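Entry 14. Structure prediction run on the chain below.
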Amino acid sequence: MAVKKKRKPSKEILMAPRKLTNRQKTTLKKHSKHHTKKHMSSMKKAMRKGKTFGAAHKKAMKKVGR
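Output returned:
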């Protein structure tokens, strides 16, 4: 019989929403030249929840597109 493993809650749920650092803000500003407002707001939201820039970008591309 297979034993079910307990699933750890994601970091996104554990961490309280936080402000973006100055470095994140400047990186997003440069990035915004190539993407729509909808894409950027999706990324900002994900990053405030604790996702990295790359993870937030990947999620935004999948969800919103360019």
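Residues 41 and 60 are 9 Å apart (CA to CA).
Filed with the rest of this week's runs.
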